[in-house]
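Dissemination and training. As part of the outreach component of the grant, students in the summer workshop were shown how a complex can be specified as a set of sequence lines and then modelled as a single object. The example used during the hands-on session is reproduced here so that future cohorts can follow it. Participants entered these lines:
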Amino acid sequence: MFDFLRARFRQRVGPASLAPNESGLPDRFRGRPVIAQPHADVATDGSNPRSKALPEHRGRSLPIIDLGRSVFAPEEILLFDQQAAAFSQDYRMATSSRSALLTSDGEIELAHALDHKMRRLFGRSLRFRLVAAGSCGGCEAELAALSNVVFDMARFGIQFVASPRHADGIVIAGAISANMREALEKTYEAVPDPRIVVAVGACAISGGVFAESEAVLGGVPPSIPVDLWVPGCPPHPLTVLDGLLRLLGRVDHLSHTVPRGARDDRSTPSP
Amino acid sequence: MSAPALLSVYNRRCVDVSDIPVHEAEKFASTLATSVAAGWRIISLFGVPEDSQILRICAVVANDDRAQLGVACTLVGQEYSALSISCHQAARFEREIAEQCGAIPKGHPSPKPLRRHSPDHAPGGWALRPKEQEVFSFDVVHGDEVHEVAVGPVHAGIIEPGHFRFQAYGEEILSLEIMLGYQHRGVERLLERSERGRAVLIAESIAGDTVIGHASAFCGAIEALARSHKTPRGQTIRGIALELERLANHIGDLGALSSDAAYQPSAAYFGRLRGECLNLLMTISGNRYGRGLIRPGGVLFDIPPAMVSEAVRRVERLRDDVRPVAQLLFETSSVQSRFDGVGVVSAEQCRANGYVGLVARSSEVPRDVRHDFAYGVYRYAQIPVATAWSGDVYARALVRWLEIQRSIEFVLEQLSALPHGEVRVDCGALRPSELVVALEEGWRGEIAHVVMTDAAGSVRRHKVVDPSFHNWSAVSAAMPGNQISDFPLCNKSFNLSYAGHDL
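and obtained this result:
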């Protein structure tokens, strides 16, 4: 008994803070990329594999960074074809639409809350079923870390459940291997309506490093509508948590990422 | 026995493909069978198309006691006499060859699909059976009151997909069969046809908790083929990163084992301490799993003096924090009674089936690449091999604890004595028509990347063997006789990679 109490006393630390400047992320952490001065005259012919534009963006003259295809590798900075491009330490990157992950200067519109009706139904909590389909296991490990005493998503009422029947939605990781397609569809169908879907990681969003493989679909198929897109490879647990809290409407004072050098966000009115 | 039928090779040293002995089918089969019977084990047995009608089958075998590696080949047509008739250890590999290359091993005792995908390494002229015609039929035990339990691919927890089929009599498991392949992403084909910058990212993603292990083995193979220099500082940082990865996973596993035994205190504390290791990797590389660190030619990030001091401080703190938690775990009798005598794997099973890494060491079979086929910094700094004898969940927990302690000491030693110089040098073009075997002791066990180049110096075949490929059958072997409610605990004590197996 005393050994246990002594060990508990020794551990003393509590859960991590979610205030943006208290994340404790190190200098080398590769968060959201930011570009100091977007270049207007760089080629937009798709020759840069990292700046493939969705059809609705082809009219724009600036090249596009796709956070959903990025695996946040250090070398990617060179591929952004921009001056003064760097990965920031901002871990907030989850969005409500696929197109919101495309940016020319690194600024993105972050995820917004579920509609009023859904939130009334789910209350203040979210129960998820995880489906890993053609993944490497990294996203699963970070999602599992969300249940530990540091990130403790249970303090916000979010937890993973054993069956899709018990769930409000599914969290999908992996590039969707051919062998898991049916299981994914059946699991999604088994979640009672209304249900939400969270795509976690570059693989689930776009196929990630496996995008060119014939063995995978290359991300969540169009038949499954996604409510929250969380980029990363794997996304830091704080990135996932920030996204989920925005879905719940618990982070409502800042919907856009703030440019470098801006003042404290409380003084900026939210759009 | 150094059989002349095998060409002697060394970890990360290339050989000319033309020097590898090519045997007639019978001689190859008997070489394989007698080697394994004499104490060798199969690291890899894989197929590579020789031309449109012929498949070359290569065997890479190891004798750990004598620190020897050997290679030999044979050439076969689409139907050939199965090697596993005379060599049981070849069975799983032959299922893989059948699937990847479209070959038919006649007389194979259990020719079931392995990853359930269409052949992607078949000789161009072979007629291939579409994979829909392959059916995985489970072995069933018949009898009164014998029932079947199916679990997966979608499991109750946050875990990768796989299918487990139990034959049970009440609570007691009579047999367990595991069907994998759900995580198959086509890794080997991607590695073979991607340019180097992309290939290393794929290597990092073979198994997301073994980023450093696989990336290091991949780079080891590429660097050998390119005759790239390796800097002492770069190699030392690689070793530090590999041990940090080992620490993160072992600490996390002890936490998960506690959780499966419903002992919350150590589950909670180990969970936090695992994060400390990942955060150290993140401080060094910018990513919690070390992605972006290991690159051909060395490492991308150095550890400057201020960071070294901080890292030493944090690892010393980790050492002090983890000891009382481990004491809690190992001295709580209710937890130990859950671990004791459950999920036993014998030393004979390890030797017969070629199990590697932690699983083997927990059954007193001391296999460790850092010791037997030392490479990089492990040539200069020896980590004592940790073993236990009972082969049960307790032994696998104990070996993890021993390795945690030893890895912490290693990391502190190396941080305090980082060699001077560059951390990365150029890694040039690959030599043509060569073969290299790059072994690495990942945290689960032996990782093998076997790379063969063609006459133009491009990668002709890149065979990846994760330790889980060898060890998954240990889970099936360990379960009979145990209670089905002990399955999560047992499975966790192995903690094998689904993605690493499925590629």
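Chain B has 16 helices and 16 strands. Students were then asked to discuss how this feature might be tested experimentally.
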